[in-house]
Specification:
This protein is of the alpha+beta class. Helix content is 16%, strand content 44%.
Length: 205
């Protein structure tokens, strides 16, 4: 009978598509030069789990995940997206939502259960910075958990265990990443805080 061979061919053709669908991580929206797995990306591209996202200078990539969270990869950055985890290789990412976590070096961040939590993670050759832009953030480093209050930045030196906590509004470089993304329309609802932990810009669009 010809039915069985045709059915086998149908399975061979459709199984890779079904597997790809099962691994979809979200939809990518971009401004500027963005690559996925070394190939130029298009606005509206589908991102699979494990994909590598790279951005050029003055460029942004915004991944809307299936869980409803937002992951913004800032300019000159490289990151990998796993299931609800962003692994930052270099540069900066901004996470908004309750499900997604960031991993950079030995550090992992989590946002608890607050849907509007916003975390900025920056990494370069000298240091790692975690900013709790909106909502508190739990930072795990070497099995030790630290709760970072809203409006604060945790900085860890690459060369040793030095850890410092400061005000987010005092970090010109981190504020510039967030405000540039907001000006480009990539991020909404930016909130900045002064040394007294008072809001100095609106936290709602």
């Amino acid at each position: 009978m010809i039915v069985r061979p045709l059915f086998c061919i149908f399975l061979l053709l459709t199984t890779p598509l079904l597997q790809l669908h099962a691994e979809v991580g979200g939809v990518l929206h971009l401004k500027g030069s963005v690559w996925t797995n070394g190939t130029p990306a298009r606005d509206g591209s589908v991102i699979a789990l494990g994909d590598k996202i790279q951005t050029g200078h003055d460029s942004f990539a915004n991944l809307s995940t299936r869980a409803g969270d937002s992951i913004v990869v800032a300019g000159d950055s490289t990151a990998f997206y796993e299931k609800n985890i962003v692994r930052l290789e270099s540069g900066a990412v901004v996470l908004t939502g309750r499900h997604v976590k960031a991993e950079v070096g030995d550090i992992t961040t989590s946002s608890g259960n607050y849907a509007n939590t916003q975390i900025l993670v920056h990494s370069d050759s000298d240091k790692i910075e975690i900013a709790a832009v909106r909502g508190s953030v739990t930072v795990r480093d070497g099995g030790k958990d630290t709760v970072l209050p809203e409006g604060k930045v945790l900085t860890k030196s690459r060369g040793g265990p030095t850890v410092a906590v400061s005000n987010f509004s005092s970090s010109t470089a981190l504020v510039a990443i967030l405000t540039t993304a907001a000006a480009a329309g990539i991020i909404t609802g930016v909130a900045l805080y002064n040394e007294n932990n008072q809001t100095v810009s609106p936290s709602t669009p």
